[in-house]
Amino acid sequence: MQLSKLNHVAVIPDGNRRWAKKKNLLPWQGHIAGVKIIGKILEEALRLEIPYFTIWAGSYDNLTKRTDKEIKLLFRLYEEYFLKLAKDKKTHKNEVRVNIVGRWKEIAPRGVKSAIEKLVYATKNYKKNFLTVLVAYNGVDEVINAVEKIAKDYKTNDKKITPEIIKNNLWTKDLPPVDLLIRTGGEPHNSNGFMMWHTADSQYYFTKTLWPDFSNLEFKNTVEEYRRKERRFGA
Asked: What are φ and ψ of residue 135, in 5° steps?
């Protein structure tokens, strides 16, 4: 029996707006509460020695189809959080390399773009831990973009399409497979083809806990349960 190694955890942090509604708060107050949880979960991931951690901070639709006020608030939260992360001593002490993936360059305000550039530059040389934040991300978009790049390349090259070629054209090409995917909020489904290539063999954990109430204890227990399981990968 081979116990499961845990190299990469991804999180879909659902439930901010429902959490706010339950408390008779405004929707963006749920987002503010949700941002506060991210740091606690990241610290727990580092303590549990999980080298790759990915979190979906917002889909392209989240950042284009909601009210102007909510979208502006989300972008402000991103800017503040990324600047804080770049300066945080824990980021540098733990040698966390941060990357922001998605179509954020198309829609993010100048301040957010600047904050992202500063964060990525400040952590670019680290090789111990890896944090990926998905902003304006959609898994279907990612795959379509990869197919378009491969199709363009094939105009002048005659070679067989392999899994390696597909992976190397993804936005998330530098990430290993997701071992454990956690979705909070009580809705047991995937969204927009979330990291579909990397989650082909993932274990899923669905919890009814809304993201602002998700604790590092629940995260720890979920990780420990995963590590006790035997992974067969279809064999």
From this structure: -125, 130
Domain encompassing residue 45:
8-228
**CATH for 102:** 3.40.1180.10
137 within domain boundaries: yes
Residue 38 included in any domain: yes
Residue pLDDT, tens place only, 50-67: 999 999 999 999 999 999
What are the residue numbers of the active site?
A: 14, 62
Residue 93 lies in a domain: yes
Overall domain count for the chain: 1
- pLDDT tens-digit profile of 108-164? 999 999 999 999 999 999 999 999 999 999 999 999 999 999 988 776 566 788 899
